[in-house]
């Protein structure tokens, strides 16, 4: 006797049992329609989100292009202005040369004209102004009749922007020199003139005049202030190592110190995570050349995996507050892997000098080997070499790299 084939239609089975399942079927059908409608809505939302993302990226690219274009235009405009001033200066020179050839005395030309240059007497302006004056005197030496004309030409820049001399320190200093020069000759000092003969030391030559200007308006604490800034400067989170190196080297240019001091300042100013990773990798503390130390800092900064590991180790060490070389207790609730408490065995510095060096490194970074092992396991990193625990490590069941490339504490 053959059995009836099993049926999968629940409604037919219920009908066979004479049970009304129409409401149940209607509910299932309604829910299926609702699910289908929601799926369509989700798909539409996905499409709209993708369109919004694409539009946002397009707007960012447009904005970036506009910024680059504006910067390029400003650069070209600045270059154009400088070229126009230079052309104007050359035209004035050519005009005066032609006039001097016709009527003026030979060998005496008009002095250079630079209407965009001024010196108000602020210490931060002194070095740049003196550099400009000395360059102009060298390139235009034949355009001055004598030293007095050079001094008067330099003094013509003693004003604030807009040719305002009221309350201008450099102009007041110039007036004071003229008063001193008039008094030395027994002339009235109330209306001392720049056309009187120059007899005082500051006005005997253009170079002596520039020397007196530097002595008066130079910031004599500039080197000391740069040293103070160097001691306070720190690399910020949003500052790349390349950008920080430029800022550090600019401040260092004004300070005279030995190579070891430069490295010490740089080591204290750089990102602490770079410092920690440098100690982990080895060789960081022994570098005493600033250029080499900055080159290593750039390499460490771009080692994403190493920086991540060093950051986690430093964070875990700071949270544990446990001093090195004593018993460390790890709370299993704070970590995904339960690790029994471990002890760092003390060793005699006299019998093991290498252990003494490692101890100083461990103490400096507040290192906890138990925490280090936990973090390595969580991030699938080899505890010995510090690299990713790949398939070579799995097959070898130990670090396959040579022991010379292991981390110091793993050796």
Automatic annotation (TrEMBL):
<protein>
    <recommendedName>
        <fullName>Retrotransposon gag domain-containing protein</fullName>
    </recommendedName>
</protein>
<feature type="region of interest" description="Disordered">
    <location>
        <begin position="315"/>
        <end position="351"/>
    </location>
</feature>
<feature type="compositionally biased region" description="Polar residues">
    <location>
        <begin position="331"/>
        <end position="350"/>
    </location>
</feature>
């Amino acid at each position: 006797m053959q059995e009836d084939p099993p049926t999968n239609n629940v409604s037919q089975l219920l009908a066979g049992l004479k049970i009304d399942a129409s409401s149940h079927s209607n509910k299932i059908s309604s829910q299926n329609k609702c699910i289908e409608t929601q799926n369509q809505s989700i798909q539409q939302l996905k499409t709209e989100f993708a369109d919004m993302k694409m539009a946002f990226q397009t707007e960012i690219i447009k904005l970036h292009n506009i910024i680059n274009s504006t910067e390029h235009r400003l650069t070209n405009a600045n270059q154009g202005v400088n070229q126009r001033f230079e052309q104007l200066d050359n035209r004035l020179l050519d005009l005066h040369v032609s006039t001097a050839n016709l009527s003026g005395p030979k060998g005496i030309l008009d002095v250079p004209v630079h209407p965009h240059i001024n010196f108000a007497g602020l210490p931060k302006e002194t070095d740049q102004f003196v550099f400009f004056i000395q360059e102009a005197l060298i390139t235009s030496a034949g355009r001055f009749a004598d030293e007095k004309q050079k001094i008067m030409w330099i003094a013509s820049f003693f004003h604030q922007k807009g040719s305002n001399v009221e309350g201008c320190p450099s102009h007041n200093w110039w007036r004071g020199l003229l008063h001193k020069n008039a008094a030395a000759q027994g002339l009235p000092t109330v209306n001392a003139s720049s056309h009187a003969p120059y007899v005082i030391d500051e006005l005997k030559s253009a170079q002596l005049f520039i020397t007196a200007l530097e002595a008066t308006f130079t910031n004599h604490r500039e080197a000391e202030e740069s040293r103070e800034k160097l001691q306070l400067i720190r690399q910020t989170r949003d500052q790349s190592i390349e950008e920080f190196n430029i800022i550090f080297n600019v401040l260092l240019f004004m300070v005279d110190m030995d190579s070891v001091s430069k490295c010490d300042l740089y080591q204290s100013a750089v990102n602490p995570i770079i410092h920690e990773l440098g100690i982990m990798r080895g060789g960081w503390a022994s570098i005493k050349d600033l250029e080499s130390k900055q080159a290593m800092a750039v390499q460490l900064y771009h080692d994403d995996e190493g920086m991540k590991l060093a950051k986690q180790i430093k964070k875990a060490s700071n949270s544990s507050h446990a001093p090195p070389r004593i018993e460390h207790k790890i709370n299993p609730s704070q970590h995904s892997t339960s690790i029994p408490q471990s002890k760092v065995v003390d060793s005699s510095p006299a019998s093991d000098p290498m252990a003494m060096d490692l101890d100083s490194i461990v103490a400096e970074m507040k290192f906890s080997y138990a925490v280090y092992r936990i973090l390595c396991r969580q991030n699938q990193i080899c505890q010995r070499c510090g690299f990713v625990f790949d398939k070579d490590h799995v097959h070898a069941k130990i670090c396959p790299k040579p022991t010379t490339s292991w981390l110091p504490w793993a050796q």
